Amino acid sequence: MFDVHSHFVPEGVLAWLKDNASRVNATWEQRAVGKEPFLTINQKWSFELKQAFYQADVYLEDQRKAGVAHTIVSPIPQLFLYDFPVELTVELSDLYNHELVAWTKANSDKLSGLATLPLNDPDAAARLLDEAMSNGLKGAIIGPGHQGVPLSDDHFAPLWEVANDKRAIIFIHPLLNEDPRIQRKMMPNLIGVPWETTICGLDLLLGGILDKYPKAKILLAHGGGFLPYQVGRLNQGYQMWPAVKSSLNDTPETYLKRFWYDNVLWHEDALGYLQKLVGTDRVLPGSDYPFDLKTWPPAPTSEASCRAFLGL
Ligand SMILES: [Zn+2]
How far apart are CA 273 and CA 195, in angstroms? Predict the structure, then answer.
């Protein structure tokens, strides 16, 4: 069984975080008895920093027990650091990527890795993606744009050029939605997270990115958010309005089949719908391990599709 959506913080990254806590406003807080301390970076998106996030033996033993044979391991979104000066983002991204290269190389039968990139500087992001892939990583995990600039904007063209040339996996991973209407009862995570993926996926689709950079393998988190469910509306808009079809050569439904999706959905009917819409070969097993809201172990899907996606 494979897992395409999993997170880890290598030891060297954690050490950097402790050394640079004041630069990134990192705090550790013991919130409840029996829980690990919660880590918060820059007052955003606190989470329980379980041992499985940073202890390689715990992480690998959990994979083994769950029957996961190969994992694509990603950095955690809390450490994308897009809102900091570029030098700082590059410094941590570079370290994170090198740490993941070393760890995945030492466990190459069990692990592949994705880089983190400084989206706050697309040229630097392109350079780091190129370097990371030359060192053996399979692509990168990135947030859904930066400071309101969507990923289809020409601003990000340098990154897409490299992703296309290198046939990179580009894993679009949401960040927390900051809409003031949903700042309670975990709503930023419950619906804000899939909403961010929905916005980003549709922007990439309508922006023609799938035609401009056809060799980049774009993976959408959490089953593509709400996007696949609105296929009828998208198709109808495509028929009605020139603005919808201006960058497209076919219906939105056809383009939805050109993304890949993880199956972190917790619901058989939802998963079945997605597989029927885009094809079973486009829906890959993921877990979001070791975050609280994980599907563990991941629901298995076709091994051949996973191998093709990974280029194994
Ligand atoms: Zn995740």
Answer: 18
Instruction: Enumerate the domain spans of the chain.
Output: 2-23+56-310
Q: Could you tell me the strand order of the sheet in which 2-7 lies?
A: 2-7, 70-74, 111-113
What pLDDT is attached to residue 243?
95
Element (H, E) at 201: helix 193-206
Query: In degrees rounded to 5, what are phi and psi of residue 306?
Result: -65, -40
Give yes or no for a contact between 295 and 1, defined as CB atoms under 8 angstroms apart: no
Distance from the alpha carbon of residue 79 to the mean position of ligand 1, in angstroms: 12
Whole-model pTM: value is 0.97
Strand pairing report for 139-142 and 26-29 = unpaired
CA of 238 to the centre of ligand 1 (A): 31
Q: CATH number of the domain at 2-23+56-310, please?
A: 3.20.20.140
Whether residue 312 is predicted with pLDDT greater than 80 in this model: the reply is no
What is the Cα–Cα distance from 119 to 121, expressed in whole angstroms?
Answer: 5
Between the CA of 222 and the centroid of ligand 1 the distance, in Å, is 8
What's the gap in Å between 145 CA and the centre of ligand 1? 16
